[in-house]
Amino acid sequence: MKILGIGSNYVSDLKELEEKRKAKKFIFSKPESSLAVNCDVLYPSNITNELIYEIELVIKIGKEGKNITKETANSYISEIAVGIDYTATDLLNDARETKHPWDFAKGFDGAAPISSFKPVSNYNLDDINFDLKINGEEKQKSNTAYMINDFADIIVFISNYMTLQPGDLIFTGTPALGKGEVFKGDHLQCSIEGELLLDFKMI
C-alpha cells in the first residue's frame, strides 16, 4: 500500500483557482504504520512539541493504473474516507533547513488518523462538504469545489510517475483556512456531508 498526499490544494476564494492551478504540484508520502483507523491516537510527545492538524478527504484506489487519463481518472476511485494529516512542525522546519526528507515529520506512528471508507457512489465528487471539530468547536470546513487540483488531476499527476494499485490511499488536501495545533486530551470529530465518520481523542 502507498499512502500519498498533496500539499496546498484548496483556496478560500473561488476567484483564486485559475492562478493557483498554475503552481507546481508537490506530493509527499506516509508509511502504512502511520495509519490509525477509527481509534484514539497517542500524542507523540517523545518526538515533537508542535503537532499540526489538517483535515483531508482520502480516496482509495480500486484498480491498477499507469499514465491515467483525466477522462478516466475518477473511475480508479473505489471509496472515500476522511482523515487527519498530522505534521510535526518542528521536525518539518528542521528538515527544510537542512534540505533533508520530510519522512519523520509526516510519517511517525499515528500521523494519519482515518475513518472507515464509504463507497464513492455515495457522493458527487465535485460537491462534497467536510468539516473538523475539536472539543466541539468547528475548526475547518470546505467543499471539494474549492480544490485547486481535483481528484482526477491528482490521480493523473501521480500516475505519470508511479503505478497506482488497489488499496493505495491519497490524502487530497486540507481547507485553506483553519489548520492549527492539536494538544494531548483534544477530542477530534470529522464529518462528510454532516455524517460523523471519525471521532477520536489525543491521549
SS elements, strand count? 15
**Main sheet summary:** 6 strands, mixed
Q: What is the gyration radius calculated from CA atoms?
A: 16 Å
Strand order of the largest sheet: 2-1-12-5-6-9
What level of helicity do the residues show? Answer: 10-25%
Strand content: 25-35%
Count of separate DSSP helical elements: 4
The assembly state of the depicted protein chains is single chain
Topology pattern, helix = H, strand = E: EHEEEEEEHHEEEEHEEEE
Task: Give unreliable regions as ranges.
Answer: none
Mean pLDDT over all positions: 97
Q: What spatial form do the alpha-carbon principal axes imply?
A: globular
Class per helix and strand makeup = alpha+beta
Which key terms come to mind for this protein?
six-stranded mixed beta sheet, globular, four-stranded antiparallel beta sheet
Describe this structure in words.
The structure is a single chain. Helix content is 13%, strand content 33%. By secondary structure, it is an alpha+beta fold. It has a six-stranded mixed β-sheet with strand order 2-1-12-5-6-9, with helices on one face. A four-stranded antiparallel β-sheet has the order 11-10-14-15, with no helix packed on it. Strands 7-4-13 form a three-stranded antiparallel β-sheet. A hairpin with a 2-residue loop joins strand 10 and strand 11. The longest helix is centred in the middle third of the chain and has 10 residues. The chain is globular, with a radius of gyration of 16 Å.
